[in-house]
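Researcher: Here's a chain I'd like modeled. Treat it as a single chain, no partners, no ligands.
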Amino acid sequence: MTDRALVLFSGGQDSGTCLAWALDRYAHVETVGFAYGQRHAVELACREPLRAALAGINGWGARLGQDHMVEMGASLAGIGETALTSDAEIRMTQSGLPSTFVPGRNLLFLTYAAAIAYRRGIKRVVTGVCETDYSGYPDCRDDTVKAMQLALNLGMEARFVLETPLMWIDKAATWALARALGGEVLVEALRLQSHSCYRGERKILHPWGYGCGACPACDLRAEGWRGFTAAAPAD
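Model: Modeled as a single isolated chain. Structure tokens:
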């Protein structure tokens, strides 16, 4: 086990599970987060407590390396108003995409991450995008990630591997993966420490974690939790 990895780590359930997945596999794992004027910026405050929680599981602290934060300011918010970067209504748009879709967001994230990985001598870049529970975002699709891997490798003359451990599983399976990786301790850390709610709600605690309970991110997380707990073996 000698490979090094860089995980796109937002402070959410998916990226937290991906961080655990990478820590379980690689000798050295670094993280990167992005401040881009997101409406739910509270997720950034969840990053360090969640990192610390994962460091205490399975001896992963010995493998957890540097955290990087990319300050993008309000650049993405300024390009176009979306419900993820403003107080706009969360709804389906005429294009068929939800108003929470931020055009180019994941493409920029992967580009920044690859630039950091290049400088750090890291070849594996891990992201929590998913085509099963992805709200219709085109930059979460497998074809997009494969195209980005090709573009980044050509543009930087590198041999990056963009890894997407959640690409073909739903939220219930994501909770199950967390349990397989770190047991109930990891499940509980993700439930209480990670953040998914688009509205940034951290005062209301549901069985599946904190959130408004009504936005698309909360709906997906709640549905996944119900499926996960329903399938859990009886004690």
